[in-house]
Design a protein that fits this description.
- It is a single chain.
- By secondary structure, this protein is mainly alpha-helical.
- It has one domain.
- It is built from six helices and no strands.
- Helix 1 runs antiparallel to helix 6 and helix 4 crosses helix 5.
- The termini are far apart.
- The relative contact order is 0.11.
């Protein structure tokens, strides 16, 4: 008799437990899915906000690096730095020092640009210094600052493109990708 009652109670409880576990599982899955989609929405929103804040900084970095490349362009640099009273050695020192100072002034911009763009900027700096050094070495004995300037212009004239132009092309390509 006791066993019959126990059996009856189990028969009544068993479907209730199955329904409860099924409902519990479905609600838990629904809430997990809902929480996951809300988390994804929040992350996407944060990324959009970050992009909105960093895009102007990145564009400013590209602008500053473009200005840097213009300023170290051999032709512009020689015209800006050449003074009539300078010796070739003085002009050489002034050119290389200016290139390095300009680079150091803009070194923080690397955090806003890609590694490829930064490598191109560094390469432009190094190749421009190399070009100035080569012109100084080829200028002969006792060159004047005018001789050095002419030699730099000759070397640049033989190039299909200056180091600055190549780096600027890479920067322009990256900026186009931002839009």
């Amino acid at each position: 008799m006791f066993e019959d009652r126990l059996f009856t109670v189990l028969l009544v409880l068993l479907p209730s437990v199955v329904v409860f576990l099924t409902a519990f599982y479905l609600i838990r899955q629904f809430l997990a899915q809902r929480t996951g989609s809300r988390r994804d929405e929040l992350l996407n929103e944060m990324k959009r906000e970050d992009r909105g804040r960093t895009l102007p900084l990145r564009l400013q970095a590209y602008e500053r690096l473009t200005l840097f490349l213009e300023r170290i362009s051999p032709g512009y640099l020689v015209l800006r730095m050449h003074k009539s009273h300078m010796t070739a050695g003085m002009l050489h020192d002034a050119l290389t020092a200016t290139i390095r100072e300009e680079f150091e002034h803009n070194v923080t911009q690397q955090i806003y640009v890609s590694d490829r763009a930064w490598q191109k900027v560094r390469q432009a700096k190094e190749e421009t210094i190399r070009l100035v050094n080569l012109a100084y070495a080829q200028a002969g004995e006792g060159p004047t600052s005018t001789d050095l300037s002419q030699k730099i212009f000759e070397l640049v004239g033989r190039l299909s493109h200056t180091p600055s132009e190549e780096a600027m092309a890479a920067i322009k390509e990256e900026v186009r990708k931002l839009f």
